[in-house]
Design goal:
The structure is a homohexamer. Chain A is mainly α and about 70 residues long. Chain A is built from three helices and no strands. At the D-F interface, helix 1 and helix 3 of D face helix 1, helix 2 and helix 3 of F. Chains A, B, C, D, E, F: InterPro entries: Hexamer_Tyr-coord_heme_pr_HTHP, HTHP_sf.
């Protein structure tokens, strides 16, 4: 089943959530084991720098999604 | 309640504050627990590199918001 | 044999997989030894920050692939 | 008082200095306490990597400011 | 002798190799001593994060080269 | 005396050298003390990751300079 059909979203907020999904899929493709990913969650969810790094990946994907949607103008 | 209706802002300064909000929402989506985020604030707010990393995420989002607003020209 | 003929893909999902490939090729060109890369996999596949860093490289390449495909519009 | 009225500057050099200001404002919004920021200055101003990280944030903002000014062409 | 005459390449793959060269030249300009660079190769070629960081620089340059070549369309 | 009059350069190579200069100026504005910067040079010039980080900043500035010069086409 395709997990990514389009970059087009109805709203900027839905676009942000797509960017979150893209960032997480980048991790999932690299570490397919869900159990390992869950274990690691404790690691990054309690580290300020890890959370900033995650937010940074979302920001890069949000640039892509926002441009794809012509900034929902 | 939608937290992000539009990327359009009246001024470059309002756009910068939207970029700050987007950077923080990227953390919030990853770590929804406000208490944990507050605890972590002590960690990053007293580290030069952590603050630079946070400023970097704001810079990426500001690129997106500025382009969305055609640089407020 | 050429490993990269085009940046054009049929779908956003295929584009994401191309971005993954580009990120990995960036590592392969820098460390051609497959054995070393496999050994290192244990290192990054069990570190939250390493996985986020890998996802970040995918995000940058996805920007390029998405723009190349005019966001599959 | 508004600290950011426009992204338009007369020269590439003035644009670079605006990028520096934007990078610093990203820190200031995150850590409003000037005393803390001054204390941290000793930390990053004597670390090669910290200075490179700071220069990186300036580079991202400079992309934005340069595009806003159509590269002062 | 000029090392960089043009950003235009015949293929996406040749463009990727140019991006690799640009990333390496960024290191070479900063550390001109080939012996030091060779010594350091042992350091980064055996570190997952170092290899990811190197791949990240290639990704940024590939954005530039791909845009220069209008994505080889 | 102005240190940055224009982003326009005759060649891609001259553009790369301007990107190097911009990356270094980002450090210089943050740490104006030349003696400190020279001392720090020993630190980053002997670290693979520090050199990669420096090359990354050059890559971001090179994107800006290349776009300013319409990729010297």
């Amino acid at each position: 089943m395709a997990w990514l059909e389009t970059l087009i979203t109805d709203t900027p907020e839905a676009g942000f959530e797509l960017a979150i999904k893209l960032a997480r899929m980048g991790v999932k493709y690299t570490q397919p084991d869900a159990e390992v990913r869950d274990t690691l969650r404790k690691e990054y969810a309690a580290s300020a720098d890890s959370l900033t790094m995650a937010s940074h990946v979302v920001a890069v994907h949000y640039q892509t999604v926002a441009a794809a949607n012509n900034y929902w103008k």
